[in-house]
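Subject: two folds for Thursday's group meeting

Dear M.,

Sorry for the delay on this. The cluster queue was jammed most of the week, so I only got both jobs back this morning. I'm pasting them in the order they finished. Each block is the input sequence followed by the predicted structure tokens. Could you check whether the formatting survives your parser before we put anything on slides? The first protein is the one we discussed after the seminar.
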Amino acid sequence: MRRRRIWSLLLGACLACGGPLDRVDGRLVLTLEGVPVEADSVRLHLEIGDRAFDTTVPAAATIDVFSAVPVGEGTLDVTLLGGARVIARRVGMPVTIDAEAPATLVVDFDDGPALDVDIPAVHNVYTSDRIEVEVLDRSFAAGLTLEASVRGEPVALPPRSATGWLFDIDAFAAGDLLPVDLVLELEACADETPPRCAQHSYTVRVQREVWRGELGALSSVPPAIARDHVVTADDSGRVTVFAAATGEVEHTVTREGPLLAALGVDRDRVFVVDADEELVALSASTGTVSSWTVPLAGGRASDVVAYDGGFVVASGRALTFVAPHGSARTVFSAPQTIRARPFVDGPSIVLAGVDGRVVRIDAAGAVLDDDDLNASVRAGPVRTDGVTWVGTLDGRLIPIGGDAFDVGEPIAHPLLVLGEQVVAAAGSSLLFASPGTLRRVRLASPITGAPVAFRGGALVGLRSGLLVFVRPDGRQRTLSRLEGAALAASVTPDGDVVAVGSSAEVVRLRAEEDFLP
């Protein structure tokens, strides 16, 4: 009979009192058989009555670590580990600890049941596609059952086939704000008593980011999409051409000083306005700069806008038309500086000056409409459903000929036409307007990127770095978070988003088809 005599010597006065210290101890010795080769340690959990004992030891054929446990009946869990990963386990095995001789227990894992699981280690994009999982039973045990869960939520499994299971899991389980690790837990148990089980845990990296690249300096110019290329222009004067599919840098072209205007695209050619106020063209495919330049007189240029097979660009008080081969002519001379982006409305062009005059001209430069708003126009003009809209620095969104909306904050970002609605950014609010109606959607931080049409709604960048998608009915969802403020974004022909941030980065992102149900 074996007793813990050191306790009776030290606490002998309490032996007559009874209680947990007045007990008879026994010993448990384990023999492990059929341990898979990938197991390197064993976790043990023994329960006798209301007492529990836990330990983790290196994997071995014989384990003798429970040398002072109370006698009685209980249960034992044995878990095989390969590093931190659970390989297999046996749970709830009955044990009887006797005081007269060591209790012995043989635990047979029968080399499993071990599973082969085919699942991507990294899921590079977040889409509505399912992540396919194939589980093969290496043990071919009769009556083997499988349970699966993602983030603790059970996954519905199909009936077992002759070799195992084939099922998929929904990346939506990862939640909204990405990237995130989606953990899939699998447990297979043989139909026997006590159950013989194998556990596996797999981590799938779910994200929307397709690739990320570095810029030479800050850029607030929306990236241009030219066929299979993404083109960026930054404040150091560098134009960078990325492969649209991979993000690999294909070409760089450096001009002196910052690039002042957004990029215009004509198939393979990309047009920029440099610090010398010259319009230059380069090939996105080759990175070569055209042999011609077009001087632009009179100050900072606006965006380059496609028109009549060529381009128009406003600089100072002049509106210049540039033909594809580089010849240029002044179409219109305004009485005041043109600060806002020209808007092409069929054969006509709408312009707004800092003096608040909004004019619509034809291809020959003849004035069709002339409205004096007596306010500094910085957003717009745009036209939808026959109405011209502008946004002003004193916080008004104006449908010319109708009642203005006083939004209380300056409207400086370009306006967006979304069907018959106009979308404007003011402070931390996104405004959806049509004549007589206005919906204000408040966002988490000030808007730093102009609204971009996306999936029937508007995509905007925030100072917090979030790219937020907003529906006209006010529903919103975060697409991604950039480092620093999200400054500008463009949408590729296949529906991806390319955005630039204040930390001099460019990132290509993908959203699932049903991005916002």
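Second protein, same layout:
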Amino acid sequence: MEISGISISEGVVIEKVLILSRKKIKLEKRKIQSIKEEVNKFELAVKKTVQELKEYKKYTEKNLGKNQAQIFEAHIEIAKDLQILNEVKTLIKTKKVSAELAYESICKKYVKLLMSSKESFFQDRANDINDVSFRLLSNLLGEKNPIEIKLNKNVIVASEELLPSDIVFLNQPKVKGFITIKGGRNSHVAIMARSLSIPAISGVDCYLEDLDRENKVILDGFEGKIILDPSKNLIKQYEYKIETNKKKKKDLEKYINIEPKTIDGRRISLNMNIGNSLDIKKINPNSTDGIGLFRTEMLHFDKNEELDEKKQIEIYSNVLKKMRNKRVVIRTFDFGSDKNPFFVKKEENPSLGLRGIRFSLKNIDNFKMQLRALIKSNVYGNLSILFPMITTLEEFHEVKKIFYDVCKKLNYSEKKIKIGVMVEVPSVALNIKKFLKEVDFISIGTNDLLQYIYASDRLNQDLEYLYKPFDPLVLNLINDVKNEANNHSVETTICGEMASDLKSLLLLIGLGLKSFSVNESIYLKIKSILRLVKYEDLKIIAKNALKSENEENVKIMIEGYIKENKILG
């Protein structure tokens, strides 16, 4: 029996499932002996909870970076919140109720208030209060949080949902994978899974009870499926797949210091995408040509405050210094759509709303602050600035004016920094000639470009069939943009998922594109693949793809080439 879900972290694991469900704490009325003792009991539980959260923060910061640890700072503030604490103590004193009933009552009041808001930030804070209150109530009652059990055997953890404070549990060596009913690719649990390199599936279409099996199950994080009660033969097949994947990963290390070239000598500029402190830690400046896309908006996730100028300078400077004067393309904040920190208002139609540069132009002071931080950081390296979600030439003129004004006030020559635009909406692609006269480089964001070409929300699972990277219409549009850029001697980079998908990457190389920015997880594999293909062969396939009638024919051509040459093994 197979159960499907969303693959949030790749890999395969075969183990028994451990069902983790947070038992609801049942509070019973009890007569308190002394108000003073009850208040003291409550204060001790608060102190213990704060200490636990501080340890979690320290642990997470050490193992996963400062960015991931910031969620615990918010939890600590909730646990120490004077308004909540004072209201609890008042309730104990005036109503003579137990500390646990008083605390639960006050927390419920604030959770209800926050959940009534349409703002995602307030709803997230309600979830944070629930997380903290569960921990504090457990401490009050002297109960151990079931998520904190120490494991003595390998398991796949399955839960309705996992919370940020579960990070310590999930990072145990015995946790080999996990499954959640709730959540998606951008949830806390997804970020943690990828950070820990643990195979994981979310959004599973079943009940937890369905996963409760005596035998081992197969979690396939590549295909987003769970196989229950697998046969011995199927287990052997997957065991072989696991060992093969381990060996392949180890073998790829030999490509770290090798240039990305095709058999016939076509040199490809292969850059890396980064978005948070974990990605920054993984950068090997010897292996990559540069940073092709630094998604700065990702720095705000799991934080409870906006990044000030000083903090931004520190982050950007560290990356530029680490890259040793290799090019670093930093994109200004691309808030909106599915990337909404607490200070970004959630919209009813976010994909078509106040996102990317639109948000920046409505929040000029913050935009200028980021530009100042970027400019001041450039003493350490080779910076280029990329502007997202540009849709009109007038927008870009306004952006350039702001950039030049900031440079002037800092007595800095704007010529020292190259600036470019994301080509991710059809209006820019169709008007590319005029944009090319204004920019130093362009970066094609294929994820959003496809979304807007087909008017399909890329976060909607029901519309996955409209993600059509092999459609000749898409390939011709990208080819036209690339040709115009070549005519104007403007560099073109592909930074979307098409660059990280090996089949579409080969087609793009065949179209003559030479610069790509990809995820760290696929970087070395791409280097290895390039050593197995001929640019001249890919040119012929790409030429035929442009003339093809539909995407199926294109897929047949590229898959046939891959199979014939045993490229993906």
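Two things I noticed about the second structure. The mean pLDDT is 86. The longest helix spans residues 35-64.

Cheers,
T.
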